[in-house]
Amino acid sequence: MKRVKIMVDQEYDVIIGENILNRSGEFMPKSKIYNKAYIITDDNVLPIYFESVGKSLEKIGLKVFKHILPNGELSKSVQALKIILEDMAENGFDREDIVIALGGGVIGDISGLAAAVYLRGIDYIQIPTTFLSAIDSSVGGKTAVNLEHGKNLMGAFKQPLAVIFDVVSLNTLNDEIFADGTAEAIKYGVLKSPSLFKKLCNFSRSSLMEIMPEIVSECVAIKGEIVSCDEFDRGERQLLNFGHTIGHSIEKCSGYAITHGRAVAAGMAVITKGAAKLGLIPNFSIYDQICEALKRHELPIKCDFSACEIYNSVLSDKKRKSENINIVLPAEIGRCELKKISLETMYSIIKEGLDG
Ligand SMILES: NC(=O)c1ccc[n+]([C@@H]2O[C@H](COP(=O)([O-])OP(=O)(O)OC[C@H]3O[C@@H](n4cnc5c(N)ncnc54)[C@H](O)[C@@H]3O)[C@@H](O)[C@H]2O)c1
Fold it and tell me: Which of 88, 274, 328, 345 has the lowest tally of Cβ within 10 angstroms?
């Protein structure tokens, strides 16, 4: 079993192991005795993993409640959040109780937000069950739901007390959802680790599974390091948005039919290609390398939306600051830079990135 410490104000461990879901109770923080657990999950995850987690929590004396959302991005909504909060109140939840997010990033994001706002904040734990949520969304304390204007526009920073990840839970993912996680892993490689990037270029899903604890701990360590320098997203943490400005727009333009990971994959390729064409990054070799890695995992490198559609959606994205926008550009594999550009340049990047 591996543990990666996330050194934020209230530090916590990401616990990575095999067949550990039925031991979830053992990993609960020892600092407090809880009465009830509110497990939020979705209809895909429920029949596979709820029982082992629920039983394990009952074993340590918790009364377990469950809340099941339909799977998919559309559940990350204000309406779904309200129903969760009303249900917690109905069942008398208070600060001696705990929320458990059992599922992918959608479940993690909405559960974290419910924990952040219910009674002005109660404790919560993340139990990610997708590759993407294990290496990204469960760590770092960004919680959110979507508004009609765009992704994650309602949210809060709320760190979990622990993250418990069972590698075995990835076995039940279909290839497409597994690849969504690979897109975010490729992002970490481009941001900080040429060696991780190389593995992702060379390895198939099955060979990645053989070294999954190592891959997850490396990604989580990279995210943890960035988040510990900038917990509240004022500078360095924005690097984690590589591919996300365009990615979020692709997701939104598709009515969330395109998944987050695939949208980020296309977002990374489009922004890198557009920036290379405008001379904002040194050459096309970075673009070629990113495309090679993405294609290896059958991830998209472009999308069918027009530059206007993507640009209009970018305008309502939360990362826009007045007439300028901060974007992340790769300088080389393993090093990225934040750059403030005008909206006009943003439009040109999108146009050039989608062209051809
Ligand atoms: N908070 C953050 O820092 C952060 C970072 C990255 C992404 N996100 C968010 O994460 C979300 C994407 O997360 P995701 O890719 O995990 O999507 P998801 O939560 O929608 O899960 C994808 C699908 O996999 C199913 N599933 C989950 N675990 C399974 C398992 N073990 N076996 C079989 N099926 C399983 C789900 O039911 C769902 O249908 C997006 O909303 C994105 O905005 C947040």
Answer: 345
**What would the pLDDT profile of 39-82 be if each residue is shown by its tens digit?**
999 999 999 999 999 999 999 999 999 999 999 999 999 999 99
Q: How far is the CA of 132 from the centre of ligand 1 (A)?
A: 6
Candidate from 48, 53, 106 with most ligand 1 atoms within 8 A of CB, to mutate? 106
Sign for the pseudo-dihedral over CA of 191, 195, 199, 202: positive
The angle at the Cα of 184, spanning 249 to 41, to the nearest 5 degrees, equals 85
Domain ranges, residue 16 = 2-171
The answer to pTM > 0.85 is yes
Give Cα 86 distance to the centre of its chain. Answer: 26
Question: Among residues 171, 189, 223, which one ends one of the domains?
Answer: 171
The H-assigned helical ranges of 278-332 are 285-296, 307-315
Q: How many CA atoms lie within 13 A of 182 on its CB side?
A: 33
